Amino acid sequence: MRFRWLELEILYYAAFSTLKGITTLLSSRIMNEIQNFKSGYVSIIGAPNVGKSTLLNTILGQKLAIVTPKPQTTRNQIRGIHTNDTCQIIFVDTPGLMNPKYRLQSEMVRTAYGALGDADLVLFVIDAAHRDPDIEDTILKRLKRTKQTTILVLNKVDLVDKPTLLPLFEDYSQKFEFAHIIPISARNADGVPVLLEQIEGYLPPGPLYFPADQLSDLPERFFIAETVREKIMLLTKREIPYASAVVVEEFEKRQTNKSEEIIYIRAIIYAERQTQKQIIIGKSGKLIKRIGQLARPDIEKFLDTRVFLELYVTVKADWRRDARQLKELGGFVDM
After folding, report:
1. Would you give the DSSP letter of residue 11?
2. How far apart are CA 52 and CA 13, in angstroms?
3. CA-to-CA distance for 185 and 192, rounded, in angstroms?
4. Model confidence over 53-75: pLDDT tens digits?
5. Secondary structure E strands in the chain
6. Which has the closest alpha carbon to 92: 119, 59, 60?
7. Dist CA 248 CA 228 (whole Å)
8. Domain range spanning residue 184?
9. Half-sphere exposure of residue 45, counting CA atoms within 13 Å on the CB side?
10. pTM: predicted TM-score of the whole model, two decimal places
């Protein structure tokens, strides 16, 4: 009996030692992976219409930021999360920088520059085909003050003759000490893998801030409102795209008559003038109907479910110039 107990004790200690060894090995590997993993915030700045939002969407492989041919499409910071086996990059897309003419534009500029403070790296995006020297110089002055590590991204190089790129490199190299100057075409994804590789090289060691499959930390309502606003910008002209705001008032799951689940969305479109409201509604309601028809498929794709979208239009006079209404309609909560 004594020998039987001795055998059991030997087996127990052998098993314990093996388990301890496996645990130590796994812990070592996990710690090693944590130490090698990188994460950080990367701010994307530039003049209006240089392709910042297109670049973000291309990197994420999904449309997160709305895109239109009109300048000043982006009004708020839009955070997109790119995660792979070795790093997590939280990109912050910002409004195009300009010389503001009213309160909304001032808040957009403040929001854009506000993204520089906590950034581990800055991407300064330039439209290589259509430069804006005045705005670019203003941005460079701010970058010199903040002393942030900055990569110059020459976008839309597919639209320029290749021999003209070398003088651009030389010109910008003399203006600022960029970490890198990388030519890309965000629309075609040319050069984007090289850009991502360089970005990762400048990230500090850090944790996984968000789940690996999460694309943004902003609520669904924000992206729904932005989708509707995108269609307004695409379908209207002159002042209306800039005088319009969208707020999602209702967002709830409902059952159809066939007991199928559908998401009911009620969104309010705000205009500054009664005449603008009438234009958005259109003759016999045709334009507002068209806005909904274009927005609904995009929202369904984003939510991956069927949607019933109801749109209403109302007037809030001069909301772009009023601080309180900018908080409510523009989303500038830290004013």
Report:
1. H
2. 61
3. 8
4. 999 999 999 999 999 988 888 98
5. 38-46, 78-83, 87-93, 121-127, 150-155, 180-183, 245-255, 261-271, 307-315
6. 119
7. 10
8. 38-202
9. 31
10. 0.85
